Amino acid sequence: MSEWRWPDLMKRLLPAAVVGVLLSAAGCSHFRLGPDPMSPKGQDRWVEKSLESMSLRDQAANLIVVAVTAGFSHVDSPERLRTESLVRDLGVGGIAMWGGDPYDEALVIARLQELAPFPLLVATDNEWGLGMRIGGSSIFPKAMALGATRDTALARQTGYITGLETRAVGIHMGYSPVADVNVNPLNPIISIRSFGEDPDLVAAMAGAWARGAQDAGMLVAAKHYPGHGDVSVDSHIELPVVDVGMERLEQVELAPFRALVTQGIDAIMVAHLWIPAFDPDEVVPSSLSANVVQGYLRDRLGFEGLIVTDALRMGAIVRNFSVEEAAVRTVEAGVDLIVLPVDARRSIDGLMEAVESGRLDAGKITTAARRLLRFKARLGLHVRRQVPFRGVEETVGDPRIEILARTITERSITVVKNEEDILPLGVGSETAPPPEDEYASAAPPKVSGPFESRFTVSEGKRTDSPEDSVRVVFLGLSSDPGSGPVGRSFFSPLRRIFPDAAQFDLYPEYSRQQAEEVLSAVESAHLVVTAVISRVRDQKGHAAVVEPHATLLNYITARGIPVVVAAFGPPYFLSQFPDVNAYLAAYDYSAMAQRAAGEVVLGATGARGRLPVSLPEIYPVGWGINVGPSVER
Length: 633
Known about the structure:
Elements: H1 6-13, H2 16-26, H3 40-53, H4 56-61, E1 64-69, H5 78-90, E2 94-98, H6 102-115, E3 121-124, H7 143-149, H8 152-168, E4 173-174, H9 199-215, E5 219-225, H10 246-251, H11 255-263, E6 267-270, H12 291-300, E7 306-309, H13 315-318, H14 323-333, E8 338-339, H15 344-356, H16 362-378, H17 390-395, H18 401-412, E9 414-418, E10 457-458, E11 461-462, E12 472-478, H19 488-494, E13 502-506, H20 512-523, E14 527-533, H21 547-558, E15 563-568, E16 582-585, H22 591-602
Parallel strand pairs: 1-2, 1-8, 2-3, 3-4, 4-5, 5-6, 6-7, 12-13, 12-14, 14-15, 15-16
Antiparallel strand pairs: 9-16, 10-11
């Protein structure tokens, strides 16, 4: 027997005039019984009816979030079949998106929403914009760059645009912002992802970012509670320990999260950390700790939003717990969403076995499932699951957004050290970008500072004699494997005044011949301008400059050769080569950050950034030297 729709049934049983009056009064083409589904009463009714229709296993499955990689796939490809089975047959309640472009995301999400027995909550990492995970989307500078501007308006705008793009492709929740207070310079995984080391600054910037994203309709999941900023171990590899007292935790690590809870944050992601102040008698990750989750976050802070785990497939968990045990402990602790377990089915089986054995109260599963359904109803997913595809191309990747990214970048550049006012190397309007014909009537660029009398350019040609010229070496040092030029976008502006500078690029692995070539060149150089790059990424285990590169810079400075260093990545590199003559922090490694730093060194733009972290025993939080023209807009 075919399924009846209410309008069709009424047409068969009631006179046409009566049907018309009823439908007209309802204000829609489908007759409604009960409250408006988007009203609080209508949302509650859907939540309770959904729970009634779910078995306990269905409820448990609804707590699981699995990873989905967007992009084209054949209908019979193994990965697509596996993902569809997890959604349709296993009934997972959430997906976390990776890869593809904005249309890939929207199409894959729409397909999976159609298959899901209940609406999916869709999430992604978008700390520095949707482009963090999804190609063709906007990318912003890292959080520490925003911290260096100290401008909450910029943070709010960034959050708003990120939220708009995220929602446009059908994603509801961002695992952002990072509310960790980065007090450990050796932190291998947070570092520039944090707004800084001052709890008040972090709270202000994270709060502003969150408000912007929420204004755009995105659910915000601040991370990594209770604070991942004082670790020297990457939790993707093993379990870090934060061994400080509760008083310090209250003042530093917990302060931004407390502020965000008061502000009305939607969700909080719990990190995998062992904090003896919370659990002195057992080595237990915070994501699995009832004291951290239920005891402090729920009971002490009164947080009523969603609590989600960091990925359970990370080393801190898989090295210490079985799939089943990890799932059970998260729910025991008071978590609502189990994110990226190694095996979704085994996680659900583990929860069911724990209930059957009497270890786990079934009510904990139901409570978490109800809370999740309420958020889905708040998003209107019980009314409409898909997004209009037209909104994708009208919202995502607007080229005007780059203006905001460039503004943040330029205002973040921080000159930390500038001996003898060596910076800027160029002076005046002559350093402005050249017109299309670089030898047109624009004034010729000039070198300033200690080198001004040794180098000039006229009509695009060298006018100095070889013995009087400034011999400049561009040195690119990358602490990450790779090939090709290092810091290309940084050195590009400097070519306007040093067109003949030789460039050398070194990666962690390099030959003796390469080293000899560099040493030979710098021995006769008057100036070495260096781009130092070290990326913050999971599984790497550190974010410092590799030792051979630091040794090389210390050797050059010991020879009395002036060295200018631009740091692309964490700002802490200066402690490894403290005697360089000038040092800039860019807090990122993007082409945009490199070019902005190059323009500051050149003198085409100014530097007004302030350190959002301290460089221990050297420079305090808030330090920065104003150099060059103003960058205020």
